[in-house]
């Protein structure tokens, strides 16, 4: 009787297995890219935590010192910086609609203040319970009113927001805190700060204002665990492909000495360990 043909590991060069390896490579590259993306998200979150730690409770500096030009603002360094503005609120407020808060969806009250040096700076004076459908009809006198005359205002710097595609402004309601648009609507183009606006902290003398936001949470999120999970998926895929290759090798080389030796060693290890619980249960059932 002739010996069975031994295939060995040559089946790994077949078109089918080359396809498996190609899919494994594509899957691994995708997992690496997704894992690195999560690492980048974590780095951004940690950078935001550093900005909060360094800037949120820092002493106030003069607005002109922090923003030497109307367009100046470096979000990576100046976000949450506390600045002091001395001037007078001018004109009517704008309502940045569709702003969520613990009390529901409303609008942010955006008021321009003309500084003593002549520039115009926009201040977010808090959240008010005016939703998008009400914003166009609300009366100015029904909104929180700032103090008249000269005021000293402390705010935290935030970058102006981009336009929202498909959403337009109507009257004094705006879709986003787009500082260029606010300058145009208020007739202060060329004299308004367009790099950053301020979130109100306090003002003297004090006026009415909306609900002020709480301090942001120092939370980097689950990005590290998500990133590691993508690399674990690569390891699982490698183990799965390796196991499948081993099983196919054993099936194609069932009569080879190598496979027989593997089976003999496995049987010896099983004998040394003694019968398993399953084996004992099968024996009892047979008896």
TrEMBL record:
Residues 277-287 have a biased composition (Acidic residues). It is found in: Cell membrane; Membrane. InterPro entries: Surf1/Shy1, Surf1/Surf4. Residues 254-287 are annotated as: Disordered. Pfam families: SURF1. It is a multi-pass membrane protein. One of its GO terms (cellular component) is plasma membrane. Keywords: Cell membrane, Membrane, Transmembrane, Transmembrane helix. The chain crosses the membrane at residues 17-37, 224-245. Belongs to the SURF1 family. This is SURF1-like protein. It comes from Leucobacter viscericola.
């Amino acid at each position: 009787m002739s010996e069975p043909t031994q295939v060995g590991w040559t089946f790994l060069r077949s078109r089918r297995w080359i396809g498996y390896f190609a899919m494994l490579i594509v899957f691994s590259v995708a997992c690496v890219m997704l894992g690195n993306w999560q690492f980048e998200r974590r780095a951004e979150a940690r950078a935001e935590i550093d900005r909060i730690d360094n800037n949120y409770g820092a002493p106030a500096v003069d607005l002109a010192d922090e923003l030497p030009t109307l367009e100046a603002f470096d979000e990576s360094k100046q976000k949450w910086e506390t600045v002091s503005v001395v001037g007078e609120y001018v004109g009517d407020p704008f309502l940045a609609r569709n702003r969520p808060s613990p009390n529901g969806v409303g609008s942010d009250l955006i008021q321009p203040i003309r500084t003593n040096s002549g520039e115009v700076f926009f201040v977010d004076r808090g959240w008010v319970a005016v939703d998008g459908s009400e914003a166009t009809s609300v009366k100015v006198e029904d909104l929180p009113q700032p103090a008249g005359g000269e005021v000293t205002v402390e705010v935290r710097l935030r970058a102006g927001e981009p336009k929202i595609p498909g959403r337009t402004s109507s009257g004094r309601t705006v879709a986003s805190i787009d500082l260029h648009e606010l300058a145009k609507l208020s007739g202060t183009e060329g004299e308004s700060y367009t790099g950053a606006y301020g979130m109100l902290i306090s003002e003297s003398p004090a006026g009415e204002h909306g609900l002020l936001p709480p301090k942001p949470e120092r939370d980097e999120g689950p990005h590290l665990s998500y990133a590691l999970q993508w690399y674990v998926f690569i390891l699982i895929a490698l183990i799965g492909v390796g196991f499948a290759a081993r099983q196919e090798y054993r099936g194609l080389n069932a009569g080879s000495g190598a496979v027989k030796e593997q089976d003999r060693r496995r049987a010896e290890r099983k004998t040394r360990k003694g019968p398993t619980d399953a084996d004992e249960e099968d024996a009892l059932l047979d008896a």
